[in-house]
Amino acid sequence: MVDAPARSRRRGWLWLALVASLALNSFFLGLALTDFGRDLFSKSHGDRQMRVIQTELRWLRGRLAPDAIAVVEAALAPIQPEMRTRLERLKALRADLDRQAAVPSPDRAAIDALLREIRLEVGAMQDTVQRTTFDALLALPPEARAPLAEPRPERR
Protein backbone atom coordinates (compact mmCIF):
# COMPACT_ATOMS: atom_id res chain seq x y z
CA MET A 1 0.00 0.00 0.00
CA VAL A 2 1.23 3.51 -0.86
CA ASP A 3 1.47 5.88 2.05
CA ALA A 4 -0.18 9.31 2.03
CA PRO A 5 3.01 11.42 1.50
CA ALA A 6 4.01 9.35 -1.57
CA ARG A 7 0.52 9.68 -3.04
CA SER A 8 0.60 13.43 -2.41
CA ARG A 9 4.01 13.74 -4.13
CA ARG A 10 2.79 11.74 -7.12
CA ARG A 11 -0.30 13.93 -7.38
CA GLY A 12 1.95 17.01 -7.15
CA TRP A 13 4.10 15.74 -10.02
CA LEU A 14 0.98 15.08 -12.10
CA TRP A 15 -0.24 18.63 -11.53
CA LEU A 16 3.20 20.01 -12.40
CA ALA A 17 3.26 17.94 -15.61
CA LEU A 18 -0.23 19.17 -16.51
CA VAL A 19 0.68 22.83 -15.94
CA ALA A 20 3.95 22.45 -17.89
CA SER A 21 2.11 20.77 -20.75
CA LEU A 22 -0.51 23.54 -20.85
CA ALA A 23 2.20 26.22 -20.81
CA LEU A 24 4.14 24.56 -23.62
CA ASN A 25 1.02 24.06 -25.74
CA SER A 26 0.02 27.70 -25.15
CA PHE A 27 3.47 28.82 -26.27
CA PHE A 28 3.29 26.85 -29.52
CA LEU A 29 -0.27 28.00 -30.15
CA GLY A 30 0.90 31.60 -29.67
CA LEU A 31 3.71 31.07 -32.17
CA ALA A 32 1.33 29.64 -34.74
CA LEU A 33 -1.18 32.47 -34.27
CA THR A 34 1.56 35.10 -34.49
CA ASP A 35 2.82 33.66 -37.76
CA PHE A 36 -0.73 33.42 -39.12
CA GLY A 37 -1.49 36.97 -38.03
CA ARG A 38 1.71 38.30 -39.55
CA ASP A 39 0.74 36.84 -42.91
CA LEU A 40 -2.87 37.95 -42.59
CA PHE A 41 -2.28 41.51 -41.47
CA SER A 42 1.06 42.41 -43.02
CA LYS A 43 1.30 45.69 -44.91
CA SER A 44 2.39 43.87 -48.03
CA HIS A 45 -0.70 41.63 -47.83
CA GLY A 46 1.33 38.46 -47.43
CA ASP A 47 3.55 39.26 -50.39
CA ARG A 48 6.91 38.69 -48.77
CA GLN A 49 8.62 38.96 -52.13
CA MET A 50 8.14 42.72 -52.21
CA ARG A 51 10.64 43.27 -49.41
CA VAL A 52 12.86 45.03 -51.93
CA ILE A 53 10.19 47.75 -52.23
CA GLN A 54 9.33 47.77 -48.52
CA THR A 55 13.00 48.28 -47.66
CA GLU A 56 13.11 51.40 -49.79
CA LEU A 57 9.91 52.74 -48.22
CA ARG A 58 11.20 52.07 -44.71
CA TRP A 59 13.90 54.72 -45.25
CA LEU A 60 11.17 57.28 -45.92
CA ARG A 61 8.53 56.39 -43.33
CA GLY A 62 8.62 58.60 -40.29
CA ARG A 63 10.51 61.28 -42.20
CA LEU A 64 7.98 62.22 -44.86
CA ALA A 65 4.32 63.05 -44.52
CA PRO A 66 1.89 60.16 -45.11
CA ASP A 67 0.62 61.76 -48.33
CA ALA A 68 4.18 61.94 -49.69
CA ILE A 69 4.70 58.27 -48.80
CA ALA A 70 1.45 57.46 -50.60
CA VAL A 71 2.77 59.17 -53.75
CA VAL A 72 5.95 57.08 -53.64
CA GLU A 73 4.00 53.87 -52.98
CA ALA A 74 1.73 54.65 -55.94
CA ALA A 75 4.78 55.15 -58.15
CA LEU A 76 6.24 51.82 -57.01
CA ALA A 77 3.03 49.84 -57.54
CA PRO A 78 3.42 49.49 -61.35
CA ILE A 79 6.89 47.92 -61.04
CA GLN A 80 5.75 45.12 -58.72
CA PRO A 81 5.03 42.67 -61.58
CA GLU A 82 8.54 43.29 -62.93
CA MET A 83 9.99 42.71 -59.45
CA ARG A 84 8.07 39.42 -59.12
CA THR A 85 9.46 38.31 -62.49
CA ARG A 86 12.99 39.26 -61.45
CA LEU A 87 12.59 37.43 -58.12
CA GLU A 88 11.45 34.30 -59.94
CA ARG A 89 14.52 34.58 -62.18
CA LEU A 90 16.71 34.94 -59.09
CA LYS A 91 15.15 31.81 -57.60
CA ALA A 92 15.84 29.90 -60.81
CA LEU A 93 19.44 31.15 -60.92
CA ARG A 94 19.93 30.17 -57.30
CA ALA A 95 18.51 26.70 -57.97
CA ASP A 96 20.94 26.32 -60.89
CA LEU A 97 23.77 27.48 -58.64
CA ASP A 98 22.80 24.96 -55.96
CA ARG A 99 22.72 22.16 -58.53
CA GLN A 100 26.15 23.18 -59.85
CA ALA A 101 27.59 23.21 -56.34
CA ALA A 102 26.12 19.79 -55.53
CA VAL A 103 27.76 17.82 -58.36
CA PRO A 104 30.80 15.69 -57.48
CA SER A 105 33.12 17.81 -59.65
CA PRO A 106 31.76 21.36 -59.70
CA ASP A 107 32.54 23.57 -62.69
CA ARG A 108 33.98 26.71 -61.09
CA ALA A 109 33.59 28.75 -64.29
CA ALA A 110 29.87 27.88 -64.49
CA ILE A 111 29.43 28.76 -60.81
CA ASP A 112 31.20 32.10 -61.31
CA ALA A 113 28.98 32.83 -64.34
CA LEU A 114 25.84 32.11 -62.29
CA LEU A 115 27.08 34.29 -59.43
CA ARG A 116 27.72 37.08 -61.92
CA GLU A 117 24.17 36.72 -63.31
CA ILE A 118 22.74 36.82 -59.79
CA ARG A 119 24.67 40.01 -58.99
CA LEU A 120 23.47 41.62 -62.23
CA GLU A 121 19.85 40.67 -61.53
CA VAL A 122 20.00 42.00 -57.96
CA GLY A 123 21.62 45.19 -59.22
CA ALA A 124 18.94 45.64 -61.88
CA MET A 125 16.20 45.18 -59.27
CA GLN A 126 17.79 47.68 -56.93
CA ASP A 127 18.32 50.17 -59.76
CA THR A 128 14.68 49.96 -60.86
CA VAL A 129 13.30 50.37 -57.32
CA GLN A 130 15.66 53.21 -56.38
CA ARG A 131 15.21 55.06 -59.68
CA THR A 132 11.41 54.81 -59.41
CA THR A 133 11.51 55.91 -55.77
CA PHE A 134 13.63 58.95 -56.46
CA ASP A 135 11.69 59.90 -59.58
CA ALA A 136 8.60 60.02 -57.36
CA LEU A 137 10.45 61.91 -54.61
CA LEU A 138 11.81 64.50 -57.02
CA ALA A 139 8.29 65.09 -58.36
CA LEU A 140 7.16 66.13 -54.87
CA PRO A 141 7.31 69.81 -53.91
CA PRO A 142 10.55 70.86 -52.18
CA GLU A 143 8.80 71.40 -48.84
CA ALA A 144 7.59 67.77 -48.89
CA ARG A 145 11.16 66.56 -49.48
CA ALA A 146 12.80 68.93 -46.97
CA PRO A 147 12.60 66.45 -44.02
CA LEU A 148 14.97 64.15 -45.92
CA ALA A 149 17.79 66.59 -45.15
CA GLU A 150 17.48 65.78 -41.46
CA PRO A 151 19.48 62.80 -40.17
CA ARG A 152 17.50 59.62 -39.86
CA PRO A 153 16.68 58.83 -36.23
CA GLU A 154 18.72 56.00 -34.74
CA ARG A 155 16.93 52.67 -34.44
CA ARG A 156 17.57 50.59 -31.38
Structural class: mainly alpha
Helices, by number, come to 6
> What's the main sheet like?
none
Tell me the β content. Answer: under 5%
Q: How many domains in all?
A: 2
Low-confidence blocks of residues = none
According to DSSP, the number of beta strands is 0
Find the CATH topology of the largest domain: Four Helix Bundle (Hemerythrin (Met), subunit A)
The helicity comes to over 70%
Determine and state the CATH class of the largest domain: Mainly Alpha
Distance between the termini: 62 Å
What radius of gyration results from the CA coordinates? 26 Å
Question: How would you spell out the order of helices and strands?
Answer: HHHHHH
Q: Write the CATH architecture name of the largest domain.
A: Up-down Bundle
Descriptors:
single chain, mainly alpha, Four Helix Bundle (Hemerythrin (Met), subunit A), 2 domains, 74% helix, Periplasmic heavy metal sensor, transmembrane
